[in-house]
């Protein structure tokens, strides 16, 4: 059972927008920045969003992040089949003094 | 170019120990928090431990506390994970990760090393 809650799966058609949610509590998301990662099968995770809404260089602006209270969201617009991957949120938990990941969301682009 | 290369994984029996090593290049390791993350086969990512730039602050996941020890040698650009009393549930690919942003913004990942604990 992950400290951060993500939907296990989500699907949408090419060209559409999808929102992946990450729900936590006051000791983690409510108190700290959230980052998001993309992982294709058999590959290493890649940082997509850090400090809630910042994109590393090289990440397309189709990917955006936001945070409100104890929840965070990753939006992906203009979906492409190449976006099919697992997506994870992560933050620091001030009560646990540990990093915490969401369980991951498998995105399918139909 | 930033590179993180892990080694030391392998097959062990429950109760045994392993030491993972991560050698960093392309950046100054002494300027960054470093983190270990693991991923069990077919499962999600799990945060394991992290260590401050100078080694003065260390944190562990509850699942490994008391069994795993993270350490670093900045002079050798290396991060370590000593894993004792290994259990079947520790079976995973272990990633060495450079922290690049606040609150575990995990910017650069190694390719990982596989640890298999079997009886």
Explain the overall architecture.
The complex is a heterodimer of chains A (110) and B (119). Chain A is 0% helix and 45% strand. Chain A is built from no helices and 9 strands. In chain A, strands 1, 3, 4, 7, 8 and 9 form a 6-stranded mixed β-sheet that branches. In chain B, strands 2, 4, 5, 6, 9, 10 and 11 form a 7-stranded mixed β-sheet that branches. In chain B, strands 1-3-8-7 form a 4-stranded antiparallel β-sheet, with no helix packed on it. Chain B is globular. In chain B, 42% of the residues are buried. The chains are: A mainly beta (110), B mainly beta (119).
| Low-pLDDT ranges of chain A | none
Backbone structural class of chain A: mainly beta
Q: Which percent range describes the beta-strand content of chain B?
A: over 45%
Query: How many extended strands of chain B?
Result: 11
H-E string of chain A: EEEEEEEEE
What is the helical fraction of chain B, as a range of percent? under 10%
The average pLDDT score of chain A comes to 97
Largest interface: A-B, 29 and 24 residues
Q: Rg of chain B to the nearest angstrom? A: 13 Å
- Report the β-strand fraction of chain A as a percent range: over 45%
Number of strands of chain A: 9
What is the assembly state of the chains in this entry? Answer: heterodimer
């Amino acid at each position: 059972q992950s400290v951060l809650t993500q939907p296990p799966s989500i699907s949408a058609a090419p060209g559409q927008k999808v929102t992946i949610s990450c729900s936590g509590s006051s000791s983690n998301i409510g108190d700290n920045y959230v980052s998001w990662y993309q992982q294709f099968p058999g590959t290493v995770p890649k940082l997509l969003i850090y400090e809630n809404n910042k994109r590393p260089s090289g990440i397309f602006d189709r990917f955006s992040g936001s945070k409100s209270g104890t929840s965070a969201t990753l939006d992906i617009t203009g979906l492409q089949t190449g976006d099919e991957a697992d997506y994870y949120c992560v933050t620091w938990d001030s009560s646990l003094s540990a990093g915490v990941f969401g369980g991951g969301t498998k995105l399918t682009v139909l | 170019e930033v590179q993180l290369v892990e080694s030391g994984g392998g097959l062990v029996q429950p109760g045994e120990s392993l030491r993972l090593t991560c050698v960093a290049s392309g950046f100054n390791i002494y300027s960054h928090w470093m983190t270990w993350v693991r991923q069990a086969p077919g499962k999600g990512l799990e945060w394991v431990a992290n260590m401050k730039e100078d080694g003065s602050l260390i944190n562990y996941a509850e699942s490994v506390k008391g069994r795993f020890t993270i350490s670093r040698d900045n002079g050798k650009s290396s991060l370590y994970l000593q894993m004792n009393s290994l259990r079947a549930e520790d079976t995973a690919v272990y990633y060495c990760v450079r922290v690049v942003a606040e609150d575990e913004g995990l910017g650069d990942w190694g390719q990982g090393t596989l640890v298999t604990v079997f009886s």
